[in-house]
Structures are given as C-alpha cells and as structure tokens.
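Here is one chain, start to finish.
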Amino acid sequence: MASAVPASFDTFPKLLMHHAQARGERPAIREKDLGIWQTWTWREFADEVRALACALAAEGLKRDGHVALVSDNRPRLYAAMCAVQCLGGVPVPLYQDAVAAEMAFPIQNAEIAMAFAEDQEQVDKLLEILPQCPTLARIYYDDPRGMRQYNQPQLKSYESLLAAGREAYQRDPRLVDAEIEKGKASDIAGMFFTSGTTGVAKGVVHTHASLLQPARIAAEMEGLGDEDVVLAYLPPAWIGQNIFSCAQAFVTGYCICCPESPETVITDMREIGPTYYFAPPRVLEALLTQVSIRMEDAGRLKRWLYAKFMKIANRVGGALLDGKPVSAAERLLYGLGDVLVYGPLRNVLGMSRVRVGYTAGEAIGPDLFKFYRSIGINLKQLYGSTETAVFVCVQPNGQVRSDTVGPAVPGVELRFSPERELLIRSPGLFREYYKNPQATHEAKDAEGWFHTGDAGFFDADHHVKIIDRVKDVGKLADGTLFAPKYLENKLKFFPYVKEAVCFGHLRDKVCAFINIDPEAIGNWAEKRNLPYAGYTDLASRDEVYDLVGGCIERVNADLAGEPEIANSQIQRFLILHKELEADDGELTRTRKVRRGFIGEKYRELVEALYAGRDSVHVEAQVRYEDGRTGTYSADLKIRDAKTFAPGAAQALRRAA
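Its structure:
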C-alpha cells in the first residue's frame, strides 16, 4: 500500500532507489512497441536513470539547470525526467503536439540548454526555433528513424548518451548516489507551463514536496498500492499526467503502462486492464460517442436489450456503487444486465478492472457522469489545477454526486471570497511562476491563499460546487446569471456536439456556436443515405441543423426547470464551417475553448446572431482531411432554437 513507503523518501530519485531495493523485480513501467508489451522492472528502470544521470553530469547539467522534454508517454521520457532530478536539475515537459513557435517561449523563458526529443518530428521543431533559442546547445533524440542525414552539431542520440553514461557510472558509481542524497523536499522537481487559456503561458514551479505530498495523501485515501496499474496516455506536459504517472507511481510503486500510440489507447486499455484511471470529460464524451455509434449499428435485439437494461442501470447503478439500499428484485435485474450489457460494455471501454476512476479538467455533464457510474465504473470527480498539483477536492466513496467536486482533501484549506472566487491553501501549492513575480503576487496573497479564478460555493454538506471561471460568469441584460461553460457542457453531452461556445454577457439573449462531431454525424448521415463531402458539407445541411436544434431544445427544456438560470436558454445558434483547432489558437493544448479569442476572431458571426439575421457570409481557409487546404466561401445558416417558459410543465416533462 502507499503508506508502506516511508515519508522520509522525500524526492523522486530517493523514492526510485527505494523501489529498486524493495521491489526491484516488480514491473515499474511497460510500453507497447510493435504490438508487444515490453517491461522495465524497478531495478532496470533505476539502472537506466543512474546511467543517464552520469551522462548528463558529463554533458554539463548543473543543479537547478532546466531540461526540456518533448515526447509522447515513453519509458525513456520518464527515465530522462528522473535522471535530471537526480542531479538537482529541473525537467520541463512540453506539449508534444505544439507547433514549433509555441515551444520557443518556454525554452527562452527557462534558458534551456538541453532537450530530449522523441523522434524526427520533435527534432525538426526544435531545430526550427534554434535561431530564436540561442541557449539550446544539445538535443538528444530517442527514435533514430529518419535521422540518418541529420548532421547538426547539437544532435546526439539517446543510445549514445546512455552508453556514455554507463561507462561513466562504471568509473564513478558513487557520483549519482551522492547527488541524490543532496536532494531535499524543498528542491524544485519540475516546471509545467500553463495551457494559456487566458493569455501567455506561465511556468509553474513545483517542488518535490508540493508534488509528492498531495499524491501520497490521495493514494492513501484510495488505498492505492504496488498491485495497481495505470495507463499513461495524456500529454506528459500536463500536470495531471505527471501526478498519476510519476508522483503517485513513485509513492506507491504501481506500474505505469504506455500505449503504442494515441490511436491504440482503447485496445491497449483492454489488454493491460488498468485498475486506476483518469480521463477528462472530452475523453469520456468521445468514448460514449463511440458506444452510441456502435449501438446505432447494432441489430434490433441488441438495441432493445441496451435500452431496457440502461433504464435499470440509470435507476440503481449509482446506488449500488455507493452502497445504498436497493431491492432484491432490482439487484437481480441489474445482475442480469451486468452479464448481458454492462460487463461487455466495460470490457469494450477497457475498464473491466477499474477500481477508481477520476474525471477533472472541466465540468462534466451530469448525464455523462451518470452513464459511467450506472454501468459499474467507480468514476468520481476531483478538482485541482497546475498550481495546486491536482488534488484539492476529491469525492469520497459513498458521497459521489454529479453536481459537486467533493470536499477538500485532508490538509487542504478552502474558502470563497465575496465575489464567489475559490481560494486555496494546500501542501501542493506551487512555489512561484517562473520569472514572473507580479503574476505570482496576483495569484498568491500575503496569507498564502491561492486565488483560483474559479467561481463556486459550498453546498450543505461542504462539498464544493464550481459553476464557471469568475471572469466568465456574467449576467444577461435582465440580470439572469449567465454561466457559459455550464451551458456548453450540457450541449456536449450529446454525441453529435463536439464543442460549443456560448455568448450572452450583458446581452438580451444567449446564442451559441456549435462544432458538430464529424464521426457521429457522419455515421448518422450514412444511415439516412445523406451524401456528404466532409465536415464543411455536413455542417451546412438542413438535416444536421434540425438534429442539432433538437439537442438544443432538450437542453433548454432542462434549463427551464432551474429557476436561477431558466432565462439563459439558448435562443439562436449556428454551426461553424470548421472544427475549432488548437493550431488556430481556438483551443488550448488541453482542448479547452478559448471563448474570448473565438468571440473576437468570429465577431461578424456573433453580431449576425444578435442582429436577427438568418444567414451570414463567411470566407475562410479550411484544412481537408487529406491535409490539403482550400478557400471556403458560403453563407452560414442561423437558426432560432425552441425555448420554454421557466417552470413550464411541458419543459419539465421533456427534461424528465
């Protein structure tokens, strides 16, 4: 169990060496390569880390020196991170899907001299920005494919670095251990750049203590131990991936599994059977969309069984997970459903062995949350951020609800300002924003409270409810509360809606942009023999507008039963001609909507919605699925959505 690892091992390298001694032959990390799972034991992993650390010391890495890492989840990525920490250096993981220009600022800001790159793609990005990053003197690459003709003096292969490190370790085996012993809990363990939702990214500086203490507390809460297995599939630059795949793995000794590629995640999940799982709502939405598509393709009997037993699951599934009273008859029916529907469905999703599952990053739709719990997956909400090392609030077993993120984790203090902003004091609080004392001062006050920027309140059980970002919570012209993310998440529960952007602050009504899900809509269109040429063609069809309009109507019916926001029903909408993209600045790298940027970029479309027009002309460059680009010129349709009188009986019946 997590508590079996003494707290005296207070840095990542010390924990690694402890596991190498205490459970050296147990699996530390696995990777699927060419269809075969490869395993590194804790002893093998520690040996590689020692050798890398020796090599980096010879290369000139000093204490507090920053090293960039750009890679998918790979064992060598994690080995490189820990090797840097062994010498007192600071790993700085960067988003692997970022374009080259986005990598320039972190490298410049941290004056990075060394970088690890997974493959040719990442090497090319780093070479592209070398003129803007004069401090970057060395690039170590892992995958040699495509690198034969690269002769730049900055380049060096991981294999040659490792070989040099093993020779150095043979000459002086005490070097690394001596550096590890110098490490303290208060030393910097990593720097993570924020996603830039609200502006320029900031380097969030975390110590070993601020990462390991929350990870240890949460692991003990959930009873995690070295028998557990986790899938590392989210971006390594994201703080959550580091907590689940590094910090908690190091405090418990459980096994990390790296999928072969993003496209094989579901298949790989089924093979390794994770017991501990995390997914942001967008991932859970995508999985449910796949389930919905498969059910549409299923035969009549399967569709009937699914509909019949999902009604039973919705009634009693959550209650059974929470240990609440359920009649014998309902238990029997649910057990039958588990054999026929829920068990096979969990297997398809790769979640047959999940004991604890978390979702966080943004609010999750209540229906989406209920779906997973109803089929027997112990999915819970947690709340945190890059600055707080993830674990601020967690829903305890038996206290899981869709409308809260749970109470504070032990050791965390919470309070709300008069403006409803959540303030936090926590052992997981970051040290500072790197080279940005003004931003640090604005975020952390003199009493040590971190100002999250999130708006919410405590419910009667002292669970936290988050409604939106403080800056985004507004009012309509009539004074009605306007929480755009709350509305957007309701829309995104429908498999046909991939993204939604709502507008309404200080206006007389709420209007919305919709991004359709091309896979779900495409499947829907094919079943109805509707020909289409791609996303842009689908987005312009009247049949698709009718389908999306029906989704919005159901959301409005639901809102009509909520007195405080009943007047914020969506009255007009359009379907965007293109998918929102991180490369176009419309989404962050963690796939969060940049509402302000979108509103400014598409100002003409917003104004057309509020001007009462039924169409608006747009000319834009679009990217096709085969990589080609072209010019799109057409009139986007604008539709009115059906709304309901607050509290109307008809609305309540529809919501039910």
